[in-house]
C-alpha cells in the first residue's frame, strides 16, 4: 500500500497512487514499506538483464498488477524499437574506477525516457483496474526534458489527454522544437512566461484545487501527473541502479557485494531518490552524490540542514536542473524520519509560507551517512566537458558534466576511491551549443542556429546525431500557445473547454 507523506489521505494501492499522481490534498505517495531483494538471486540472471530486472523489481511495488500485466508493460517499453541499444542503459568506462551510465538512448535523448516509456502502460492498466470512466488529463510541468518524454510516452494513448507547460525562453531551441512539433490526437503544449518553478507550482495548485477539480469532474475529466511527483514515474528509475551494478559485476570490474558510489545530476530529486530506494532494497551503495548547478539549494541544504529557496533563480547551461523547489525531497525526508508525517507537513508548510525549513540534527546525521552533495558553476561545467573530451575522448552533456565536476571534487575532499557510476542524463546533442562551445570555444557557435550546431557537434565528436533530434527543423510547429504564469489554470480550462 502507498501512504501520503503528509498523513492526510487513506492508504491506497499502487494503481490508485499512479492514477492519482499525487495526494489530492497535497503530499506525495510513498510505499508503506520498502521491499528487499536478494543480490544473490540477481547475480544469477543471464539473458536480457534489463527486462528481467525490471520485471522483478516492478512486481515488488506493483502488487495489485498481475505478473502478466507487469511483463506486458516491460515488453512494450524496453525494446529496441524504443531504445537505440540492446542493454537500454549501457555502461561506459570513463577512466580508472569511474563509469558513465548512459540513460539517454530512448526516443527523446534524455533519461526521462527510462520512466516515461513505461509509465503510460502502468497508467492505462491502472485506469482499467480502478474502473474509472473518466478521461484522464495528465498535467506536466517541465524544465525541458520531461515534456517531450511524456508527450512521446502518452501520445495517442486512448482515454488520456496530455497538457505540457514549459518555461518560455527557459529551454533550449532543440527542447522547444521537440515539444512544439509533437503530433498525436491528444497532445497540448503551452509556453509559460515564467520559470520551471512557476509551472510546477501552478500544476500542484491545480491538483489541490477542489473547486476546479469539481468542474473537471462534472465534464468527465480527472487529473493525473507524469512528473516525478507520480510514484509511477519514480519507480522504473530504480531498475537502472541495479542494472549498472550487475553489469559491473558481470564485467568483473567489481566483486559481488562491493559497495560503489553513484553520482546523479539532480533537479527535482527524483532520479537520486530512486537510487536511494535501490539502496534500501539491498543494492550495495556506499554514497549517493547529489550534483547541482548554480541553483544549489540542495547542496546548501545538505551542508547546513536548512532548505532555503529564497534566492535568485538562475538560468544555466544545464537547464533541466534549474529548479529551486525539489519536490521529491519531501519523500526523502519522510523516509529518513521514519514516516513522520506531522513533521513533514510542518516543513512543507514552512516552505510554502517562509520559503524555507530546517531539519533536526539527527535527521541531518542520518542523511550524511548515505548522501554527499556538491555543485558546479556554468564555467566549471564547460571546463569539465573540454577536459574530459581532451583526456578521455568522451563527450559529456552539460548535466552529466556537472556530475563529473562534483565527483572530482568529492574525491579530492574525501579520498574515497570506491568505484563510481556517474548517471549521464542527456545526450550531448540535446545541449549542443554549450557542448560545442566547451569543446571548440565561443567562436564556434557564434551566429549559428542549433540545427547547424548539432551537425557540427556530430563531426567534432564523431558521434551520430541522436535519432530523436534529427530533422527537427523540417517538422511543422503544431503548438503555439503562450500564457502568463498566472493563467495556467485558465489554459487548462480553455483546452478542456471547461466553463
Ligand atoms: C530531469 C533532468 C535532470 C534532473 O533529474 P531529477 O530527477 O529531476 O533530479 C537532470 N538532467 C537531465 C538531463 C534531466 O532531464
Q: What's the SSE blueprint?
A:
Layout: E1 2-4, H1 14-20, E2 29-31, H2 39-43, H3 49-61, H4 67-77, E3 91-95, E4 98-102, H5 112-116, H6 119-130, E5 135-141, H7 145-154, E6 160-167, H8 173-180, E7 187-193, H9 196-208, H10 210-218, E8 221-225, H11 231-234, H12 238-250, E9 260-265, H13 270-281, E10 285-292, H14 297-304, E11 306-308, H15 329-336, H16 341-354, E12 356-358, H17 361-370, E13 371-375, H18 378-392, H19 398-414, E14 420-424, H20 432-440, H21 450-461, E15 481-484, H22 488-496
Parallel strand pairs: 4-14, 5-6, 5-8, 6-7, 7-15, 9-10, 9-14, 10-13
Antiparallel strand pairs: 1-2, 3-4, 11-12
Helix pairs in contact: 1-6, 3-4, 3-12, 4-6, 12-13, 18-19, 18-20, 20-21
Bound molecules: pyridoxal-5'-phosphate (PLP).
Question: Can you characterise this structure?
Answer:
With 499 residues, this protein is of the alpha/beta class. The protein has 22 helices and 15 strands. α3 crosses α12 (238-250) and α18 (378-392) packs across α20. The longest helix has 17 residues, at 398-414. The structure holds pyridoxal-5'-phosphate. Residues 110, 112, 145, 228, 265-271, 320-321, 399, 425-426 line the site of pyridoxal-5'-phosphate (PLP). The site of pyridoxal-5'-phosphate has 16 residues, from α13.
